[in-house]
Predict the structure.
Amino acid sequence: MDKKSRAYLLGGGIGSLAAAAFMIRDGGISGENIFILEVKSLLGGSMDGAGNSIDGYSLRGGRMLTTDNYECTWDLFKSIPSLHTPDKSVYAETMEFNEQHRSNSMARLVDRRRAKVPVSSMGFSMQNRQELLKLTQAPESELAASCITDWLSPEFFETEFWFMWVTTFAFQPWHSAVEFKRYLHRFMLEFTRIETLAGVKRTIYNQYDSLILPLQSWLASQNVRFELDCKVTDLVSTHSEGEVIVTDIHYQQGGESKAIAVESGDRVFLQNGSMTDASSLGSMAIAPKKLTKEDCNSWSLWENLAAENLDFGNPAVFNSCIAESVWESFTVTLKNSKFFDLVANFSGNQAGTGGLITFKDSNWLMSIVLAYQPHFINQPKDVQVFWGYGLLPDRVGNFVPKPMDECNGKEILRELCGHLRFDLDMLGTVNCIPCRMPYITSMFMPRLPTDRPLPIPRSSKNLALISQFVEIPDDVVFTVEYSIRAAQMAVYEFLDIDRKIPSVTPHDKSFLVQFEALVKSFK
């Protein structure tokens, strides 16, 4: 790619923003030659954060960060200046914050009696240990498209370890054994601290305000072109002698149909698929609508590419069974400190130090997390915000006689207060905004190696894919790191950048012997 050529990034999520930054920082591309086309009116993709104290705040998700992993993420954010202290990087700012606010969960699991579950023991039987070791040592070729349940006995899914692991990382028993194994290797260090979440690092505010906004601000200072409210409808390409070359980008903006001619030397980066596609928000009075991919278009461009060339993978593996990939989150805005005070007294953790509290006997498998306040840049001092989610939204609640995905915000709060034995009325002025996400764990679906394309498919000459649905050996999906690593790989290959991409840290290699001994010793 010539430094005067143009780059078109389709989708404004963290993958595209990272790709633009790498092109400028490491590839010498001028920002004015980089165009980011985003269907919504703001950037950030799945890493969103919006609202205000009057209408309520809303977050679709929260992401785990560590300093033992996330090599490409921190490589990027060491270069991005803080919005609040420009002489510091986002990385330095984040690390200083975590030195002041360390994670040490004292109420990781709570049972139906509202009693804290002892978590010093993982609850493993000898059979559990043997099966877990067999799974961690099996080659991916043997695991193939199998599910976690194909390798572990039913009793494993009742252990304290399972409840802590799956609510930290959002797995389900029917998800991919390959992805579960990769997580066990990638986050091996978390075995020794999963009960306290001591390895988790948090950003000062929510991750939209703390990561997306400073990255967007830096890109804007480099004159990157942002085309918002811009819906890409088609990629026109030629297929000759086994090569795929994108020639035109068709899109709609402001009620007009437009097109971009992709010239020789230009590059196109597509965020194929979306884990938050077809998300819908509810309110205190209304449950979220049950949308599907037919209501959005995040998958269609990838589906069209895959239909014409096998190198582009098989999106149907990931988006064909909402029942296996859906869960629901909720964001609560409070105007008095009563709830936070009661949770602190019960858990032993002040907000920002405890991490997830999981109600293990909840029919919805509900968890909440109280972050350090304020959680939004524009959040008033007398307002508190917390976030939670349920991994099993199709099941009838313990205290509300209906499935979570049919509940409005008030009913979700009633269910939560039931588990905590709190009076709903004591919350005072409160706003709970539920969010249904039908494809949120679609990247965990059982798959074959060919179902995910490479960041630059073998037959592609000018099109790269940067998302949670590409194949990166050894790394794990459902992380900020995966999108940023995919972006860095694609940019470095297209621009022929002679700089080493940070390697996946081999914690599993250096700790393998200790890990085996650790699993064998768990009670």
